[in-house]
Write a structure and sequence with these properties.
Distance between the termini: 23 Å
Radius of gyration: 21 Å
Number of strands: 33
Strand content: 35-45%
Bound molecules: calcium ion
Number of helices: 3
Structural class: mainly beta
Shape: globular
């Protein structure tokens, strides 16, 4: 398998953070939107927030790497995924994806909720074509809770609908809009209500195959038609949020399943890693305590056997209140039974938690990109596994390096999965793929639903974009 750089985009500044979504320009072809800054992503949690040294910018590029327009969002827009989610989505049905994001019009107050708006941009010009006030239901909560915003899109019997959401840990608010931007429904899930909180990812899929998309609001599935709860896994007991929530289909029985790695509500007697079936009933559960932080599902066992990974974060506070991540605990399971599993090349420590599963060559088995270890002070070098792609046996498939932007089927017309990485000092973004890939029946089955294509448009909201957590689904 040979990996090649199949696209390059020159963003022109030293890069601290980059997010990206595909944008259809209708008969003008496919474009790529980048949202980027020299400053790394800023989190609203008081123990993680810092003051930005650079603004956030949008830039639209052609597939060939030509810059079409740039917009600097200015000093009132905080450069972080929770403050400033964005989405490309054709809500009005003209085959051109509008760009939707949370702007702040109050240039004197970066935390202003009165100044925050849902803003729409025409991708053909980069100009604003609409604004409406951003709901401020979370205003009374702590800063970490207030600025957890999401924008998502989905379909109800073929009609597009837009979703805006606020909150994750306490009170949570969701609003849904029809193509003319009239509100279709609005719900509040109060902090004390039964059932799960949200997640840091928000996959959208027609999970029960009735023609209506659901959003995974953590372990709670919400209908985009009318906002009703389709079901909520472990509804009577679990009140926390899941770092990771992954829907997937098991080829052996053809049924859908849900893999959840829980972060919050760590109470004695309640396990942290769960598999649920298509009715929300538990199949297996494991790991009796801790903050589960990363997780994935990969076709990496014999005969496409699915392996599930769950990583438990061991965060420590060192001098002066600084937080650092100690060695994590990593768990590997047979995804369907919960029995302990192994990867042949993961004998050495915690490598499995730094793997991003991708099927570059389309054969139905996942390869893995090995991220840099964020706990390590050693840079990625060509001599280590870090920054490289390996196959499911650990064989080397080539060096890519960089930091992750998004992964999965980035270009729909190129066979197999691809990965998009940014290179901070080179100021560029590169997409790597396998031009000789041949899509097998197993690969095609994973892509038979529009899940992957549609969820690429949601890589600017939440943590959907990192660690392959959305692109490893199905
Ligand atoms: Ca449109
Ligand atoms: Ca449905
Ligand atoms: Ca493969």
């Amino acid at each position: 398998m040979e990996l090649k750089c199949i696209a390059e985009f020159d963003l022109g500044i030293t890069l601290g953070q980059v997010r990206s979504v595909p944008v259809s320009l209708g008969d003008k072809g496919e474009a790529v939107l980048f949202c980027y800054s020299s400053h790394p992503g800023i989190d609203p949690w008081e123990e993680a927030f810092n003051f930005p040294t650079d603004t956030l910018k949008f830039a639209l590029f052609t597939r060939g790497g030509e810059r079409l327009w740039t917009r600097d969002l200015g000093g009132s827009v905080i450069p972080g995924i929770w403050f400033t989610p964005f989405l490309s989505f054709d809500l009005d049905g003209d085959n051109v994806d509008e760009i939707w994001f949370v702007n702040n019009l109050n240039n004197e107050a970066p935390f202003s909720l009165n100044g925050r708006v849902l803003e729409r941009i025409d991708p053909l010009t980069g100009e604003t074509t609409g604004r409406r006030p951003w709901p401020k239901g979370t205003a009374h909560e702590s800063m970490s809770h207030v600025y957890r915003f999401f924008i998502a899109g989905g379909y109800v019997h073929g009609q597009p609908v837009l979703l805006t959401c606020q909150g994750t840990y306490g009170d949570m608010f969701l609003q849904c809009y029809n193509p003319g931007m009239e509100q279709r429904w609005s719900i509040k899930i109060a902090a004390g209500d039964p059932g799960a909180r949200s997640s840091h990812v928000c996959p959208v899929i027609d999970f029960n195959d009735d023609g209506i998309d659901e959003i995974f609001w953590g372990e709670r599935l919400i209908s985009l038609d009318d906002g009703h709860e389709v079901f909520c896994c472990d509804r009577e007991k679990f009140r926390g949020h899941s770092d990771i929530i992954i829907p997937f289909r098991n080829a052996a029985d053809g049924r859908m399943y849900i893999y959840s790695c829980r972060e919050g509500h760590d109470v004695p007697g309640e396990d942290r890693v769960w598999l649920y079936d298509d009715k929300g009933e538990p199949v297996w559960h494991a790991v009796d305590k801790g903050h589960m932080h990363f997780g994935w599902i990969a076709n990496s066992g014999e005969n496409y056997r699915k392996i599930a990974m769950a990583m438990r974060l061991n965060r420590v506070v060192v001098e002066n209140g600084l937080m650092r991540e100690a060695e994590p605990d990593v768990f590997l399971f047979d995804a369907m039974t919960g029995e302990p599993a192994e990867l042949p090349f993961c004998g050495e420590g915690d490598l499995a938690s730094d793997l991003i599963p991708l099927d570059f060559d389309g054969d139905g088995y996942h390869e893995f990109f090995v991220k840099n270890d964020e706990r390590s002070t050693n840079p990625i070098t060509e001599n280590s596994k870090r920054g490289r792609v390996i196959d499911r046996f650990g064989n080397d498939c080539g060096y890519i390096g960089g930091k992750q932007v998004r992964s999965g089927k980035i270009f729909q017309d190129i066979p197999g999965d691809q990965i998009m990485q940014f290179y901070p000092k080179e100021r560029v973004v590169r997409v790597w793929g396998c031009p000789d890939a041949v899509e097998s029946d197993v690969y095609k089955a994973r892509h038979a639903s529009p899940f992957h294509e549609r969820n690429q448009h949601m890589m600017g909201t939440g943590y959907n974009h990192i660690n392959g957590v959305i692109s490893c689904a199905m």
